[in-house]
Design goal:
The protein has 4 helices and 7 strands; from the N terminus they run H-E-E-E-E-H-E-E-E-H-H. It is an alpha/beta fold. Strands 1, 2, 3, 4, 5, 6 and 7 form a 7-stranded mixed β-sheet that branches. A hairpin with a 7-residue loop joins strand 6 and strand 7. The N and C termini lie far apart (87 Å).
Length: 204
């Protein structure tokens, strides 16, 4: 009997004295671009991504539209490695620019406003990532807008969880880069003077 009492006291002490187990946070990024950006007639020397205030956080956001379409949630054990605007900017820079990021040669700035990025669940086991971006083509100096366009992309997540959201975000980023190339190609065809403007503009 005494042995059982001592054993119980030992086990209780061990449980109380043990620190709580902390779950490791998984941190995600967009990885490396798998291919180069299609060549365009309009020279791009810099890519900038600006974000809406609610997206300036590493929290990985999702929305259960089938339950409460007005409420945002964030995954408890998953984060972006940096705010998504920074990740997207770096990924597009590596995809689009062949020279240094802070290029000083001829060319224009590709300025993007990231208005929305979240994983939306239309059902418990079905979700998609929505990416809304406004793009403008600007000189390296000044805020003159040479061309602008708004993009809305939605990519189905391969799994209804945080990892599926990351993979769908990567697919959306890749689709965005292709859409940007097609848009600039259309600008070059319809407004050839923009090509000349970007070739002549140099940062001092």
């Amino acid at each position: 009997m005494r042995f059982l009492i001592l054993l119980g006291a030992f086990l209780l002490t061990a449980c109380v004295g043990s620190p709580p187990r902390q779950t490791e946070i998984a941190r995600h990024d967009l990885g490396d671009p798998e291919s180069r950006w299609p060549a365009t007639s309009i020279a791009i020397s810099r890519v900038e991504v600006r974000v809406a205030a609610w997206l300036d956080t590493p929290m990985q956001l999702y929305r259960l539209t089938y339950a409460d379409s007005l409420r945002r949630h964030s995954y408890a054990e998953n984060r972006w490695a940096a705010p998504p605007g920074e990740l997207l900017e770096r990924w597009l820079q590596r995809r689009i620019l062949s020279g240094p990021i802070e290029g000083a040669g001829p060319g224009c700035r590709l300025v993007l406003w990231l208005d929305e990025l979240e994983q939306r669940f239309d059902a418990p086991h079905s979700s998609q990532v929505v990416l809304d971006v406004r793009a403008s083509l600007q000189p390296l100096r000044g805020d003159t807008v040479l061309a602008q366009y708004a993009f809305h992309l939605a990519k189905a997540a391969p799994s209804p969880d945080a990892r599926g959201g990351v993979m769908a975000t990567r697919m959306a980023a890749d689709a965005l880069s292709q859409d940007l190339a097609r848009w600039l190609g259309a600008v070059a065809r319809e407004r050839p003077q923009v090509i000349a403007s970007c070739k002549e503009i140099k940062e001092k």
